[in-house]
Amino acid sequence: MISSANQSAGSRPVAAGDTPWARLKEFLLSHRRDIMTYEPTNETGIHLYSLGDWWLAFDRSAHRLCTIFPDAPVSVFRFPDSDTSMTMAHISAASFRDLVSARTVRTIAPDHIVIPTPMLSPGEYRLWRNSKLEENGFIPTGMTLVNKQMR
């Protein structure tokens, strides 16, 4: 079980000039390998990563998280050397505590947990992902994405 005693990478003291954007960028760069390892084949869990007062989920995990928290904010980003965009949803630490209070949780690292879920529906995931890409200014075109503003 995750507790407030766990000191995650995202809950380190904030340095002068350190912005939420800088912390997110640092987090993404340091956790990229984990995210890219788990999410493409993630069929049965919500992988959540701590970033201070927020818990982040990516792609398939983000979809599942949004089925529980439909109002969870979703962003789209792309790693510089990747041609595939990723979705990211986040919830507050309070929502996280509510989420894990009655569920089995597997700890991967102090700042990375997995909540088991039923099998993912590929069709539902694709529809959700495409809608989030479009909402964020991207048009799904097969395997690549085109930013609407670049057309």
What report would you give on this structure?
This protein has one domain (9-121). Helices cover 34% and strands 26% of the residues. It has helices at residues 20-38, 59-68, 93-101, 122-135; strands at residues 45-51, 54-58, 74-77, 86-92, 106-109, 112-116, 138-141, 144-147. The strands form two sheets. It has a six-stranded antiparallel sheet with strand order 3-4-2-1-6-5. The protein has a two-stranded antiparallel ribbon with strand order 7-8. Strand 3 and strand 4 form a beta hairpin. The longest helix is centred in the first third of the chain and has 19 residues, at 20-38. The termini are far apart.
Query: What's the average pLDDT?
Result: 81
Q: Give helix % range.
A: 25-40%
Main beta sheet strand tally, sense and closure: 6 strands, antiparallel
The DSSP helix count reads 4
Order of strands across the main sheet:
3-4-2-1-6-5
Roughly how many Å is the radius of gyration? 15 Å
Order of helices and strands: HEEHEEHEEHEE
Structural class: alpha+beta
What is the overall shape?
globular
Percent of residues in beta strands: 25-35%
Count of domains? 1
Extract low-pLDDT stretches.
1-14, 142-151
N-to-C CA distance: 47 Å
Counting DSSP E segments of at least 2 residues, the number of strands comes to 8
